[in-house]
Amino acid sequence: MSYMSHCRRRHPTELDAQTTLLRGRSASQAGGAGGVTAPCPSSVGLEFLQLVHFRRVCAEGVTRDPGVIGTATGFLSRERTGPPRPRAGLTPAPARPIPIQRLSSECDVTSSFTPSCSYTATEIPATFRLRLIWDPASAAAASSVVAMELRLAGLRALVTGAGKGIGRSTVKALHAAGVQVVSVSRTQSDLDSLVLECPGVEPVCVDLADWEATERALGSVGPVDLLVNNAGVAILHPFLEITKEAIDTSFDVNLRAIIQVSQIVARSMIARGVPGSIVNVSSQASQRAIVNSSVYCSTKSAVDMLTKVMAVELGPHKIRVNAVNPTVVMTAMGRAHWSDPQKAKTILDRIPLGRFAEESNVVDAILFLLSDRSGMTTGATVPVDGGFLAT
């Protein structure tokens, strides 16, 4: 099993010495057949060390994933949880602190300290533990969610179109990250099942095509830090068969609702004097002509430009606005609509990666744009399309 696989199975702040010293090193590199170089058990304390998954140190104060951040005054603490068994022929060196250097470039943490005694791999006492303790004062610089630390916990989000597909998956991901989520859908049964899956989610049942009903339902929703405008419809007709109803419904849900919900949320952010992040779910159809999709393509093109204008106007209030532009996504609806191989081929042939997106691909992009990890990104339209828009 690899070092990182082993590491992920253990508590992140406690690693046994054998695993720690063996990481990324062969037996021959470590000192002969079966021999590894190990630090002498001791207890010397540690300051200003941040653990993420214990592998790399870097100079910029930004942790690579996985990694460690140390300062020039940092110390590595080796703490014995029990007395080691005597080993014939081995005389442990005196305990001493080992500094973690501020490095000029990223490197393996093993190179930043000198071992003080040797054991063979089989002789390292099972009771020996290497503890890494982190400094809370420096926690803001740490990188963490075992996937990627997005630091969303404690915030409040509103997600539209939350009953199914991308919206539902986004709610579940935010809920798992410790976000309080207001979930908006026009279908009560979808909200009921979502609440069962994610206890604590706040359901709001409203048809966003109804301006007055939306104002009543969301006007008093309370403080929101993050907004995902995901609700949308795709009414597909040949150009010569488009109806007024199709135009009205498409623009009401795909564009007007984004404007209205974003106004409600942004006004609250500005009144509270807090930063915020808004993500609009657009489409690759905003930038490419797709047969039988003239109204849909038009609404999504409008969403892209709306995103840019919102970013310009809301930026001074520290509110970022971005969009994601997925290709066909394999939601339940997507699978039903694109299950015909011949029909799917018309799009797949234009996607360099040769596949459609999964919901998780889009959700990951949304979470990134919501988080401070994209803190300098606003007004962007981010393709999640396997290269479709690059062709």
Automatic annotation (TrEMBL):
What InterPro entries does the annotation carry?
A: L-xylulose/Carbonyl_redctase, NAD(P)-bd_dom_sf, Sc_DH/Rdtase_CS, SDR_fam
Top-rank taxon of the source lineage equals: Eukaryota
Q: Which Gene Ontology cellular-component terms appear in the entry?
A: membrane
* Catalytic function, reaction form: xylitol + NADP(+) = L-xylulose + NADPH + H(+)
- Record bears the keyword NADP: yes
Q: Which UniProt keywords apply?
A: Acetylation, Carbohydrate metabolism, Glucose metabolism, Membrane, Methylation, NADP, Oxidoreductase, Xylose metabolism
A Pfam family of the record is: adh_short_C2
Task: State the top-level EC class.
Answer: oxidoreductase
Q: Which Gene3D superfamilies does the annotation name? A: NAD(P)-binding Rossmann-like Domain
So what does this one do?
Catalyzes the NADPH-dependent reduction of several pentoses, tetroses, trioses, alpha-dicarbonyl compounds and L-xylulose. Participates in the uronate cycle of glucose metabolism. May play a role in the water absorption and cellular osmoregulation in the proximal renal tubules by producing xylitol, an osmolyte, thereby preventing osmolytic stress from occurring in the renal tubules.
Q: Which family does it belong to?
A: Belongs to the short-chain dehydrogenases/reductases (SDR) family.
**Subunit structure as annotated in this protein's UniProt entry:** Homotetramer.
Q: What is this protein called?
A: L-xylulose reductase
